[in-house]
Amino acid sequence: MPQHKLPESFTLANGEVLKNASLYYEISGEVLPGKEIIWVCHAFTGSATVIDWWPTLFKENGGFIDLNKHVLICANMLGSCYGSTGPLSINPETGKAYEADFPLLNNRDVVTSFIHLRKALGISRIDYLIGGSLGGQQVLEWSVAEPEIIAKQVIVASNARHSAWGIAFNDLQRRAIELGGDNPEKVDEALSVARGIAMLSYRSYTDFELKQSGRGADNHHKAVSYLKYQGEKFNKRFNSHAYKILSLMMDAHDISANREATDREVLSKVKAETLCIGINSDFLFPVQEQKYISDQIPNASLEVINSDKGHDAFLLEGNLISELINKKFNKVVNEKI
Question: Which family does the entry's similarity section mention (predicted)?
């Protein structure tokens, strides 16, 4: 399990310190001269194993990432529960898991940790920095923090600051989790309800009407059974403390915060050739948010995917995203776009 040790005392933006923290990361493909570096910032509940949650981005599945010519790097973000230091990690000062005592993070902290890893790996240029949703927020932060390092970036279904609409959805999810308290029998159900609220924000009216209308073989409403199933599946792979930490991190996203400049002034300094991709049915991160980013970054363009899958189309439409990447950066136009 490749781990990158961060500085013994890793100071966060809020002044708190993480002791002996580390990042779990994966590198796919052999690092050789002439091979392009692709760095993916994973989604909210994603992991460093990109092919597990974004398979349609890979060549073998009709996508863009070709490990014969690309090297793929992805690190699990701090605060998550897939190998990097997070709420389930042992606090060296107490000898017990952090759980609810894990310090608050923001995307800038995560990007700072990624920069530490980049330097340790001896990487001086990232050819493609790619991320969607929360990962897209981190991509944007990184391109502001290291404008000379990022050559090209792809920001999918993300924003320059998190909206009141998105913050409200995240707050409802956290409040649902809190209703579980410390009762082991209620914790899983509470996280399941939170995941259900999230799934509603990730999909669309049309998607639910097409796939979840009516009743199933058990005579239960398909929509209800679907959300229960998603919640039960999620409970097996995620943790409520990590969920709260990462959702608060998303809420805190604001590209101009503590930079003594406006959004437009900050984004105007980005040097990376930028592709912003929106989804026409995404009401959680609507297209207007990607348009705002593309309007402010000097060398940026906007593409919109027509899909009835809502926000989750950024995960489900990897082939279309790949085609748009090739159109923007490699001048390859597919008639399907």
Answer: Belongs to the AB hydrolase superfamily. MetX family.
Say which of 109, 207, 251, 282 is annotated catalytic: 282
| pLDDT per position as a tens digit, 164-200 | 999 999 999 999 999 988 887 788 999 999 999 999 9
Q: Is 268 helix (H, G, I), strand (E, B) or coil?
A: coil
What angle separates helix 184-202 from helix 222-235, to the nearest 10 degrees? 120
Ordered alpha helix ranges (H), the chain: 50-53, 107-120, 134-145, 164-178, 184-202, 205-211, 222-235, 240-251, 263-267, 287-296, 313-316, 318-329
**For the chain, how are helix, strand and coil distributed in percent, rounded to 5?**
40, 20, 40
C-beta atoms surrounding 238 within 10 Å = 19
Task: Using the Cα atoms of residue 252, residue 73, residue 124 and residue 151 in order, give the sign of their dihedral.
Answer: negative
Full-model pTM: 0.95
Q: CB of 111 within 8 A of CB of 147?
A: no
Catalytic residue list contains 221: no
Element (DSSP H or E) covering residue 74:
strand 70-75
Does 161 appear as a known binding residue?
no
* Residue 108 marked in a binding site: no
pLDDT at 172: 98
| Cβ 55 vs Cβ 61: under 8 Å | yes
